[in-house]
Design brief:
This protein is α/β, with parallel strands linked by helices and 383 residues long. It folds into 2 domains: 9-250, 3-Layer(aba) Sandwich (Aspartate Aminotransferase, domain 2); 251-381, Alpha-Beta Complex (Aspartate Aminotransferase, domain 1), CATH 3.90.1150. It is built from 13 helices and 14 strands. It has helices spanning 9-15, 17-30, 37-50, 61-71, 89-96, 115-121, 141-151, 208-217, 239-248, 252-270, 309-318, 348-356, 368-381; strands spanning 54-58, 79-83, 100-104, 126-130, 154-158, 166-168, 174-176, 183-187, 201-205, 222-224, 227-228, 276-277, 300-304, 357-360. The chain has a 7-stranded mixed β-sheet, sandwiched between helices. A hairpin with a 5-residue loop joins strand 6 and strand 7. The chain starts with 8 loop residues before the first helix and ends with a helix. The mean pLDDT is 96.
Length: 383
């Protein structure tokens, strides 16, 4: 059995080494390091993959969120509703722009934002909702869009963990996550389902005017050199990272399928263990099945019952099995985001999940004997 890794980027690279190397060498040979042909090519290819009018590449996923909010011209004091159970970048950019973060609880089964809690959090100052498609699973976008329309709010999708996931509306129409709201964002951090070899990100929109604004913001507010029409930032996807992403994009669906297959193997091996809960289906499916593409399993996250999560984490470490706890502390308890407005009883699901969740190795190169070994250790500990 190969050494188990949380993410096996080395093996993934070996399978596409020739294509990646050729793409990167081409950038170095033509010295087009900033805004070169590979960036423009990747932009077009990703637009086609997502079926979205505009992709605006940028330097990282956190910048993507910040630039999206800047492009919507949100003002200091405007309230932005987002989820308490996610990585800090989502709320970080809200605070950086002097907007007011409003954190709400999640659905206990699928870890995504609770739409009932969104409705209760809306005030006259609310201007936007930021759903996070956590761990690769699509949030309840139909209801989120209905709420936004009812209250005239923007929707900014944080799609950093769910590139390639699709949401199916009641009509049967499927749309890629990140392209449903007013604007979507993603990260190409190396461990993501589509990852580059450094930092990278992108913003998506079907709004022509918003896209024009965003293209200026990412480049110091310039549309013409040394003419600064809007307040901007320096956030460009460099050509080498675009070249890597261009080489990997054609494999994204197969990468996601491999993750889904690994998830099904995990679930099959763990489903009879009463000491844990495997990932639940979302809003569209009765179960996570072969034809489901609403979950692309950036993480395979289980819930450990009876206060045994930390004991299991120690057992896995002792067995040389990597794992992650995403996330051990809710955002409303983080020192940087403490706020007297928050009441602990409003975050009962998030607080519980922070004590229960553990993420197992998940990547496109995961092998069945590795999964069986991991599950054997888990089942033995929780018997």
């Amino acid at each position: 059995m190969k050494k188990i890794q949380m993410v096996d980027l080395q093996s993934q690279y070996q399978h596409i080494k020739a294509k990646v190397d050729d793409s990167v060498i081409n950038v170095m040979e033509n010295a087009s390091f900033i805004n070169g042909p590979s960036v423009k090519s990747f932009q077009k290819n990703l637009e086609n993959y997502l079926n979205v009018k505009h992709v605006i590449p940028c330097a990282n996923g956190t910048d993507a969120l910040q630039i999206a909010m800047m492009g919507l011209n949100l003002k200091p004091g405007d309230e932005v509703i987002t989820v308490d159970f996610t990585f800090a970048a989502t709320v970080e950019v809200i605070a950086l722009l002097n907007l007011t973060p409003v954190l709400v609880d999640v659905d206990l089964d699928n870890f995504n934002i609770d739409c009932n809690k969104i409705r209760k959090a809306i005030t006259s100052k609310t201007k936007a909702i930021v759903p996070v498609h956590l761990f690769g699973q699509a949030a309840n976008m139909a209801e989120i869009m209905e709420i936004a329309k009812e209250h005239n709010l923007y929707v900014i999708e944080d799609n950093a963990q769910a590139i390639g996931s699709a949401y199916q509306f009641r009509s049967g129409k499927k749309v890629k996550t990140g392209t449903i709201g007013d604007v979507g964002t993603t990260s190409f951090f190396p461990s993501k389902n589509l990852g580059c070899f450094g930092d990278g990100g992108a913003i998506f929109t079907n709004d022509d005017d918003l896209a024009h604004t965003l293209r200026g913001i990412v480049n110091h507010g310039m549309y013409k050199r040394y003419h600064h029409d809007v307040v901007g930032v320096n956030s460009r996807l460099d050509s080498i990272q675009a070249a890597v992403l261009n080489a990997k994009l054609p494999y994204l669906d197969s990468y996601n399928k491999a993750r889904q297959n690994a998830a099904r193997h995990y679930t099959s091996a763990l489903k009879n263990n009463i000491g844990l809960l495997t990932p639940m289906a979302g809003y569209q499916c009765s179960q996570i099945c072969e034809n489901c593409d609403c979950h692309v399993f950036h993480q395979y996250t289980i819930r450990i019952l009876n206060d045994k999560r930390d004991g299991l984490a120690k057992k896995l470490s002792n067995s040389n099995i990597p794992h992650g706890i995403y996330y051990p502390i809710p955002l409303h308890r983080q020192k940087a985001y403490l706020d007297s407005r928050y009441n602990e009883k409003d975050f009962s699901n998030t607080n519980l999940l922070c004590k229960q969740v553990i993420s197992l190795p998940m990547h496109s190169e995961l092998e069945l004997d590795q999964i069986n070994f991991i599950c054997k250790k888990i089942n033995a500990f929780l018997k």
